[in-house]
Amino acid sequence: MYLFRRDLFQNGLSLKSLSETILCFSLDKSFQLRCSNWDADEFTNDQVFYAARDAQVSVALFLQLLGFFSSDSSTTWESFLGKCQGLIDVPFKGKGLVNGDINVSKQKEGSTEQTNVNSQGDPRRYKKKPLGVGYSVRKSPLYDNCFLHAPDGQPLCTCDRKKAQWYLDKGIGDLISSDPFVVRLRFEPSGRPESSVDYYLTVKENLCVVCGKRESYIRKNIVPHEYRRHFPIQMKDHNSHDVLLLCTSCHAVSNYYDNNLKQQLAVEFSAPIGCEEGMRMLEDPIRRQVRSAARALLHASKLPVNRREELLSEIRAFYLVDDVTEETLKNASNLETR
Question: pTM for the whole thing?
Fold first, then answer.
C-alpha cells in the first residue's frame, strides 16, 4: 500500500495520471481540446466525448480504489452507497482562490506580458465574481430573541426558540408570554446576570454587524477553530459573543485579514494555519453529521443494517430519544448547521 501511494504521488494526482496508474487507461488531454470553447451553447462531439470519458473514468477510479471491482451484487452496491454518505452533492470549494479570482501571483516571471497579450479580446478574463460568492448562507435567522427568566422573574438571558421550548417540553419551565416568547424556569439557575445591561440580556438583530445587511449572512467564529482547540477547557465553553453574523461579502473580507494575521502568528509563534477540515469550520460538525445521517436514512433505503443502525444511533443521541420517527428524520435532515 505504501509503494502504491508513493507511486501515485510520483506520477501525479491529475485525472489523467490516476487513470494511467490505476486503470492503465490513457485519457485524451490534448491542449486543443482542453482549451476549446467550453462556454459554447452547443458542444462538439469531441467535447461531449471528452466530458463523458472524464466522468466515466472518475467513477471507475472511485470503484477501483474502494475495491468494488469484482462483484455487482446488491450487497456490494449497498456498501458502495454507504461509502458515498456525506459526499454526494457537496458544493465544490477550490483552493488558490482569492476573492473569487484565480491567484496568479505564483506565475513564472516573464509570463505576465504574454498572458496579457493572449487574454486581450477574451471577455471571460474581465469577469469578476462579487465578494462572498460560493458561501452557503443561513436559511433561517440565528437569533430568535426568546427570554429565560428565573423563578423570581429576573431575566437571565436570551436564547433561541428551540431551547426555550425544551424547558416547556421537559416540564421545568412555564410560558409567561408568547410575544416576546418568555419562559420562567421552575428551578434556581446555576448563575445570574451581574447587571441589567449584561450582554446575554441584549436583544440581537439578525443582520451583518459590519455593514448592517439583513440577508445572506452566516456566522463568523471570532476565534478560529485551529486556535480554539488548544484553549483550556474553561475557555472552550459556548459563549454567544464569540460568534457574530456577517454578510458573505464582509465575511470574505474578514477571512482575508484573518489569513494575514494567521501568517504572522505562524512566523512568530509557529502557530497552525488551517487544518484538513478548514473548509467546513463554518459549520457545526455535530449538527452537520446528524443532518447527513438523516438524509442518508431518508433517501438510501438499501443501506446495510449495521450502517443504518450507526446512523440511527447518532440521531438518537442528538435528540435524546429512544425511537426515531419519520418526522424526526425530516427535522434532522433540515438542521441548520451554520
Answer: 0.41
